[in-house]
Write a structure and sequence with these properties.
Helix content is 7%, strand content 56%. With 276 residues, the protein is mainly beta. It starts with a helix and ends in a 7-residue tail after the last strand.
Length: 276
């Protein structure tokens, strides 16, 4: 089973690079990226969905996430995020990695978000994206993403974002480009412990994907999250426990054809800054 999945994925990647010569999808993380369309459920990982999510953070945050995609070490992926508040907003740093020694994708991005008004947050992030295939070639590109969030009232929030709007070419003379990804979504905080969101994602040359998610925090120390991506055929579920300022989530994603992907998230928030 492992060899079958790995062979299929390798063939798919090789086809997209050597035959299609077209659009290269960015690294995607399902479980940690919800919560952008809220205030009480945002954390530094929310910038994976919308870079404007960190605009009102008042403390330094750092998190790491790892996932054994489809139960294979060769398709594991990792993400690390840092958010640092300043007087007028927050800076963020994101690093992502997918793959193994014979095929790897990576990205590092530096972002900044700030409140443009009491109701509107905006953000921008610049990324360096690289694909490495030792037996074939290395290719890289610089791109950027933009995001905005609208806080309609204390409970209802909406937003839009775009990743790589210029459809940047990946390397020189490869004929390949990094996909542009557009997102819009809305979230509703039913209470300080329960949140729901709906997000629509559109990647170039692909059908639109709908992301439905819920988050529930029955106690300050316990946290639950679940969601589904309709077009990607991915569902996920996770539970988190907060010990002082350290949170640990254990999660699992399910792809209808390729199977299970267990993951682990560690997240730490430092002492709240005074005076911001």
């Amino acid at each position: 089973m492992k060899n079958t999945i790995l062979t299929g994925l390798t063939a798919l990647l090789s086809y997209s690079i050597t035959v299609a010569q077209a659009i290269h999808s960015p690294i995607t993380f399902y479980y940690p990226s919800s919560g952008s369309y809220s205030k009480n459920f945002q954390d530094a990982f929310s910038l994976l969905s919308n870079v404007a999510a960190s605009a009102n953070f008042q403390n330094f945050q750092v998190g790491v996430y790892g996932e054994k995609k489809f139960m294979l070490a060769e398709t594991s992926q990792y993400s690390a995020v840092i958010s640092a508040p300043v007087y007028s907003g927050s800076f963020s740093l994101e690093t992502d990695y997918f793959g193994f020694s014979d095929y790897a994708e990576s990205q590092i991005g530096l972002g900044y978000a700030l409140p443009a008004s009491p109701q509107i947050d905006v953000g921008v992030k610049f990324n360096y994206y690289q694909v490495r295939i030792p037996a074939y070639h290395n290719a890289s590109a610089v791109n950027f993403e933009l995001g905005a969030l609208l806080h309609i009232n204390e409970q209802l929030h909406a937003g839009v974002s775009v990743y790589n709007p210029m459809n940047s070419p990946l390397g020189k003379n490869t004929g390949e480009r990094i996909a542009s990804v557009y997102k819009t979504g809305i979230g509703y905080e039913w209470s300080s412990s329960f949140f729901t969101q709906l997000e629509i994602l559109k990647e170039k040359n692909k059908d639109a994907d709908v992301h439905l998610a819920i988050q529930y925090k029955p106690l300050e120390q316990f946290f639950g999250r679940a969601g589904i991506y309709t077009e990607s055929s991915v569902t996920y579920f996770g539970l988190g426990y907060l010990y002082h300022r350290l949170r640990m989530d254990i999660c699992i994603s399910l792809h209808q054809q390729l199977g299970l992907s267990p993951g682990l998230l560690l997240f730490y928030q430092f002492t709240r800054r005074s005076g911001k």
